[in-house]
What does this fold into?
Amino acid sequence: MALGPQNGKQNGRSRWATTRVPGEVEAGSKRHAIMRALSKRRNSAEKIRDTDATAQVGVPESERSDDSEATEVEDLQSQRGIYINQPLPPQALDEDGSPIQSFSRNKIRTAKYTPLIFIPKNLFLQFHNVANIYFLFVTILAIFPIFGASNPALGSVPLIVILLITAIKDAIEDYRRTVLDDELNNTSIHLLVDWENGNVTDDHISTWRRIKKATTRGIRHFVRFYKLQKNKRTKKGKAKLIADANELERTQTRASIYTVGSTQESIQMTPVSSPLANKHFSFIDGVPTEVTERSKRLEVPDGSAYTKPKPTARFRGSVIDPHIQAPGKAKFKKDYWKNVRVGDFVRIYNDEEIPADVIILSTSDSDGACYVETKNLDGETNLKVRHALHCGKSIKHAKDCETAVFQISSELPHANLYQYSGVVRWMQKDPKAPEKDGTPMEEPVTINNLLLRGCTLRNTEWIIGVVAFTGDETKIMMNAGATPSKRSRITRELNWNVIVNFLILLGMCLISGIMEGVTWSKGNESLNFFEFGSIGGSPPIDGVVAFWAAVILFQNLVPISLYISIEIVKLLQAYFIYSDVQMYYAKIDYPCTPKSWNISDDLGQIEYIFSDKTGTLTQNVMEFKKCTINGVPYGEAYTEAQAGMDKRNGINVEVEGAKAKIAIEKDRNEMIKQLREIYDNPYLDDSQLTFVSTDFISDLRDSSNETQAKANSHFMLALALCHTVLPERVSENPPRIVFKAQSPDEAALVATARDCGFALLDRTTHGVRLSIQGREVDFEVLNTLEFNSSRKRMSAIIRMPDGRIMLFCKGADSMIYSRLVPGQQAELRRQTAEHLETFAREGLRTLCIAQKELTEEEYRAWNHEHELASAAVHGREEKLEEVSDIMERDLVLIGGTAIEDRLQDGVPDTIALLADAGIKLWVLTGDKVETAINIGFSCNLLDTGMDLILAKVDDETPESAAKQLDEYLKIFNLTGSPEELAAAKKDHNPPAPTHALVIDGEALKLFLEAELRMKFLLLCKQCKAVLCCRVSPSQKAAVVQMVKKGLDVMTLSIGDGANDVAMIQEADVGVGIAGVEGRAAVMSSDYAIGQFRFLSRLLLVHGRWSYRRLAEMVANFFYKNIVWTVALFWYQLYNSFDASYLFEYTYILLCNLLFTSVPIVLMGVLDQDVSDKVSLAVPQLYRRGILRLEWTRTKFWVYMFDGIYQSVICFFMTYLVFAWGAPATHNGLDLGGREQMGVYVACSAIFVVNAYILINAYRWDWLFGLVTGVSILLIFIWTGIFSAFPSTNSFHTTASHVYGSLSYWLVVLLTIILCLLPRVAAKAIQKMYFPRDIDIIREQVRLGQYKYLDEPSRAYSGGESETALSSPDIKSSTVPAYIDEDERPIYPPSVAPTAATGKRGSGNGSDGTDGSGYQGTGTFTPHRFSMDRPRPSMDRPRPSMDRPRPSMDRPRHSIDRIRLSMDRTRPSFEATNDFTTAAMLARMECSSNTYPKRQSQLLSVHRPDN
It folds into this structure.
C-alpha cells in the first residue's frame, strides 16, 4: 500500500537526523564533524594497483580480448569476492560452512574507553607517568610502620587526588567522543531487509563483545533510572529527561521512502510508492511530487527550440535474471549505519551521506549518472560525477534486488582515494529461452562507479548500490590513521628531569642509609644510651630501614604536584585561547576552540607549518575576471598579486587600488546597461557579475566589425558547451541558475557565459540546452573527454544545430599551444600568449580555448576506436588517453580565460608575519601544480625573484629519481651526505629566498622512499617555499613525518577537509579550519579556528606566551622542591641520618598545596613579558621558541644549583643561631627544640621561594603581588593557628614563642637577602650587559615607542595579522575582522597592513638581517635571470589591432597597467617552460605523430636566447 507524502517543513527537503535534546547544534553538523575522527589504520599488506581501475561495458566472454581471458583466474588471498543471490563457492567456506572472509563492522569507535574497561585502562595509561609509579611505591612504603611515616593515609591523598582529577578529565573527553560516535553510527540509511546476504553471518559474536554490550546497556539503564528519579523530584519535563538520559532521539525528516510500513517494525518508516521507470521524484519546498521525466524545464523567454531524434541506447546486459520468481518479501527499511554489512543493498537519497564504500547499480537518472560532493573526503566543494554500472541500471525496486544474480570480484581495501579495480560477472539469460544456460558476461568496476564513505549525494533523487567495504576498510578511514595521543615536548622531556631528580633522591637516600648503619655499628655513641635500641636490630638492617624511610622523607624531591599543576595551567591556557575575541569568526559564530588541552606550549615552538590550499588559504570561490578573444584582451580587475607588484615598484597601492576600483565600478554599471540593451537576460544577477568589460559588449554589438563580434559570440558559446556542469534552478521569480561543477573553474566559466546571454538551462540525457540571447537551443554532446592531471585539458565533441560536429577543448596554455595547427595563427598565438602572461602576472588562473571541426566520417572512425578503448578491461585509462590525444590535434585557437581564486582575508599578511617569525610554510594540496603555483604567488609564499624547481620524474623509477635529486642538490653545492643532513638539523635559520620547490604526487612517491628521503629532505631544507601538489592524504602525513623526525623540529598541520586529517594527526599540533568544507578536520584537530589568519595570533601570541610561561613555571617548580627537600637533608647531618622530620608534618603536606602552589600556577597562566600587540608587531620574538631556548637542560641545572645554594643558606643560617646555644623567649623558655628550629627554616624557605618566583615573573601587577603576599603570610598564619591547639603536643604555643624572639626575624631577613642576592645580581648583569631581544623590546615599550599600538585606529582587530616593525615610528592601519568583499581594502600580499618591512638588505630584521632570513654576508639581492636578455616588447605594432575599432578608442586600464609593471620587472620563473610565458608559448608547435613531451629546463640557469 502506497501512502501519500507527509507534510514537511517548507524550507526545502529535510532528512532524518539523530538529535540530542536540548541542543543548538544540528545532528547533521555533528555527523559532519566526526565523520573523519576515525579509528585505526589497518596494517594489512594488500597490494595496491599500479594503474587506475578499468571500466568497460558488459560484453560476452566470447568477445573479450585475450588479455582479459588471461586474468580470469583469481587468488582468494588477493581478491575480495562478493556473491549476490548465489551460494558461496566451496573454496570460500570453512569446515562449518561459514564464510572464510571476514569483514570489518561498519560501526566505528573513536573513543579510547568503554564503561567496562575505563578504570583499568585509564589507570594503566596514567601509570605510564614515571612520577605516578614512584609515588604509588612511596605510598605503599608508608603503610609499613617500620619506616616511620606518621600518617600513611594522609600521605596518599596527593596521589589519589591527581589520579582522580586526571580520570575525570579523560572521562569527560571520552564521553564526548562516545556521544558523537553514537550519533554517527545511528545515522539512518535505507537498507534492504528480509533478504539473505550470504557473504556475512551473525553467528560469530564474541563473548567479550556480548559482555561489553551488556555492560553498556546496564550503565545506560542505571543512568536513565537515576535521572528519571531526579527529574521526578525536581518535576522537570519528560522531554528533557530523555535527552539527558543519553537516548538518541530519531526524528523523521524524510518524505520519500520506498518501503511498506508495519507496526511490528522496530524502526518506524514513512512508506511512499516506489519510483516508476518513467518518473522522477521532484522535491520542491520539502514536499515530493511525481513528475514525468524531464517534464519540468527552466522557464525562458519565448523562442524556437531546436529538436532532433535521440539515438537509442545500446543494450549492455543486465544482472537481473528474468526467470527467477521474486519472493516479494524484501523491502528497503530504515536502519542504522552500524548495521550495514558487505554485500547489502542500500538506497541512498539526495543530500544523504554515503555510509560505506558502495558500488552504484542504478540511479534516478535515466543515463545512470549521479553527483556527489566530496568535501569530507578530498576537501573539494565541487561536485563529482559518478556512473552506475550498465548491467545494474534496470534495478529500481526491492524485487529487482531479489532477482539480481551476480558476483563482484574486488581488490582488497587500500587507501588510494583515486583508484579502485573490480569486475562484476553474471550470466546473461535470454528472457525468451529459460532453458538456455545464458552467456557469461562481465563489466569492470572503476572508481567512477564507487561512492566512498563520507561523500554526500547531491542533485540526484536516489541511487541503489551494493556495499563493497565497511568500517575500517573504507578508504576514508584507511587514510585517517589512528587517533594519536599527543603529549607536548616539555611534558615528554620532563621524564628526563624527573629521572635526574630521582637519581639525586637515590643518592640522598643511599647516604642516609649508609651513614645510619655506620653510626649504629660504631657503638659507644650517644644514641646507644638515649635510644631504646635500633629498629632493625643490626646495623645493616638499620641502614636498609633508614634508606626507605629517607625515600618517604624526601619524596617531594620528585614533584608529583608538578603534573597536576601543569594540567591546571594548560586547562586555563586553553580557556583563555577559547575566550580570545580576536580569534572569533563572527561569520559562522565560531571561536578558536582547543580540542586538546595539553599541548598549548607546543604552539610556541613551531618551526614548520604544513597547509592545505583549497579552503585553507583560499576561499575556493572562483571569479572570472579577464579573457582574450581573437587577440583582443577584455576585463578589468585589480588583484592582490597586482597590488603586490605595484608595491614592489614603489606605487601607493591604496591610492592606485581606490582609483582602479572606481574605474571598474563605472565600467561594471555601463556593461550591465549595455547587456540589458542587447537582451534583457532574466538569468543575469547584477550583483554576481564578475567579468567587467564594456569593450567586450561594444565589440559584441559592433556591426562595423562583424569578425570580432562573431568571435566574441562564439567564444561564449564554447564556454557554455565545453564542460561537465550541472545546472540547478534556485528560484522562479526572478529565475536564477547556479551551477554544480567538478571544478569551481568550470562553474565560473559557465556562469560568465550565462551572464553574457549564453545560459545553460538543462543537461539532458544526450546533450545540453542553452538559452542563447533568449532563444532556446539543444546541442547534442557526442563525447566528453574529461580532465585529469596528466592531460591538463578537457574536450567536448558537440553536434551543432546545423549538423556540424565541433570539438571544443580547454586546458593549460602549454597543452593547447602544443596541439594547434602548425604554421597557422602565428600573430594570434603571439598576442594571446602575451595576454595570458599578463593575466598570470596578476595571479590569475589561465586557460586556453580552442576548437576543431570534424567531418562525419572522421568522427565515426575515431568514435569506433574510442568505444574499443572504453570497453578495455585492462589499461583502459592509457588507451582512452591515447585515443583522446589523437582527436585533440590540429586545433584552432579561439582565446583564453583568466580566473581569480580569492584568498581568505589576511592570508598574505599572515604568511609574511609567520615568515618574519622564522616559521617555514609548506603547502600540501591535492590540486594541480599550476593552481598551487598561482596561489603561491598571490599569498606571498612565492616571489618573483625565486627560481622554481619543478621536480618531476619522467620514467618513474627510483634510479631516475635519485639522479634528479643529485642534480637538484648540485644547485646548492650539496651532495646529500649524512654530515650535511646533520648540519641542516642544527641550522634553524630560514633559507635564502632564492629557490622554491614544486613537486607532484608521482615524484613525491619516489622521493619518499627510504633511500631517497633524506636527500629529498635536504633539498627541501634549502628552499624558501615547498609546494607538494596532487598528493594523497597519506602522502601529506608522510611529508609531515619526514620533516618532524628527519629534522627533529616541531610541526603544525592546518587544513579544513577530511583529506587533511592524516597530516593533522601526524603533526605535533593539528589545526582544523571550521569552514565550508565540513568539520572533518576540526574533529581530528587539536585546535579549531574559523580562518587561516587567526593562526598568527594563535602561535605568536598564545603559543609564545604558553611556552614561555610553562618553561618558567617548570623550572621554578623544580627549584622550590630542591630548596624545601635539601634543607631536610642538611638536618640529617646532625641526627645520624635517622630520617627524622625537621618540619612539622603539616608543613610538608601544605608546602606544595598552599604555601607555594598558587604563585607558581599564576605564573604559568598569566605571566606576560610583552602584550599581544607587541608580540605581533615584533614576530622575531617567537624565534626563541623555535630554538627551544626557554626550556633547556642548562636552565634546569642552573635552577637546581640555585635551589641547593638557597637550601644551604636557609638551613645553616638557622643552624648558626642554634649552634652555640639556643635562643630563649622573654620569660626564659628555651627555643632549642626541633619544632622551633623547623619554624625558623620553614618560614625562611617559604618566603624565599615565593619571592624568587616573583623576581622571575615578568608581569608585576596587583593580582600577582597579592597572591604572592598571601602565600607568604599563610605559613605565618598557619603556624599561629595550628600551634594554638593543645593537641599538637610539643608544637603547642610554638608561634607565640618564636614570633616573640628577635633572633627569628633577623634570621628570616638575613636569609632572604643572602638567598636572593645572587639571582638579583645575575639578572641585573644579564639585562644590562647581555640583553636578549625581549629585554630590548620591553625597554622600548617602557620608553613609549609602541604606544601607537594602543591607538584605536591601530588596534589589532579580528585576528588580522601585524608584522614586524623595523621602526616603531612607522605606523599603519589594519583591516577589520570581517568586511564585505566589495568593501574590503586591497593590500598587497607581500606587505602586511601594519608593516614597514623594508626592502631586502635594509637590515630591518631583529637579528640584523634583512628580515628574509638570509644569513649571508652583505646585502642580498636575488639575481633575476629574465633581465639578462631583452624581451620582445608588448607594445610593438599589431596588425590585427590596426583596423578601426570604436570600442578600443578609450584606454583599457587593466591591460595597460599590467604592461607597465611588466616592463619594470620580469620574473625569474620565465626560465622554466612550465609557466605561461609569451616566448615559450610562441615557440610551441603541434606534431601530428607523437605528443611532444615537455622537457624540464629547471636546471638551466639562463634561458637560451631566441
Summary: The chain has a mean pLDDT of 76. The chain is about 40% helix and 15% strand. The longest strand covers residues 618-629. Residues 793 and 811 are 4 Å apart (CA to CA).
